[in-house]
Amino acid sequence: MKEILSAENLTKTYGKETVLNGVSLTVYENAFTAILGPSGSGKSTLLNILSGLTKPTSGQVICGGEIVSALPENKLADWKRAEAGHVFQNYLLLNNLTAEENIRIGVVPGKAPLNFDRLVKLLEIDGLLKKFPSQLSGGQQQRVAIARAVIKAPRLLFCDEATGALDEANSKKVVELLHMLKSTFGATILFTTHNAQIASTADRVITIKNGLIAGDRQNASPVKPADMVWG
Ligand SMILES: Nc1ncnc2c1ncn2[C@@H]1O[C@H](COP(=O)(O)OP(=O)(O)OP(=O)(O)O)[C@@H](O)[C@H]1O
Ligand SMILES: [Mg+2]
Questions:
Q1: Rounded to 5 degrees, what angle do the CA atoms 99, 100, 106 make?
Q2: Is 41 inside a domain boundary?
Q3: Verdict on whether the full-model pTM lies above 0.90
């Protein structure tokens, strides 16, 4: 297993509230890691710090020998553009652009993109490219958002409750697709969720409680996404 990202003793406080209380972890390449925990436990905060969207109060995030969390804004923006893809619960598509235009926004100049046709076929959105977000279902919008995040072939894909707005069938499909992207394109996926079923499909499950890692285990026999039983 090759190390791709690590965090050392991360803390985050907002005013008097301590959200992260000293989190250290190492992320390995080409694995699907679920970050599990109850609402308010600090999952999004941790993910946003690991992905460079938020600065920690103290501690470090390291990638490729570089202290990402200490980079100045312009260098941090370069790192995010080159290495990190983001998928959010509420998709964040641009409403005045078609699905295809939204996806192509994710292409980074000077960095070879994934094959567009292959990607949209894999995500089963090849028939929807001329539609605008308002003309798409939630599951379709989430798949467009995933395509936008991965088209630049990021080494790291950060998904924050990426199925949080979807029904069971679409959630399964999105989780299945993320696993497929992992095996097809070698992506490393970090996925926050409060859904233990989704976590059961992961290679590794990190549990967050009270701003600390309360559990960290490899999943010896991950459940197939299609076999998830919804509670
Ligand atoms: N920008 C912010 N300003 C102040 N407090 C914040 C901010 N972001 C998060 N918090 C607080 O940090 C705590 C953890 O929030 P976080 O969003 O990380 O939780 P979460 O585990 O992702 O929860 P959920 O499952 O509901 O998404 C919460 O108590 C929240 O109110
Ligand atoms: Mg959250």
A1: 100
A2: yes
A3: yes
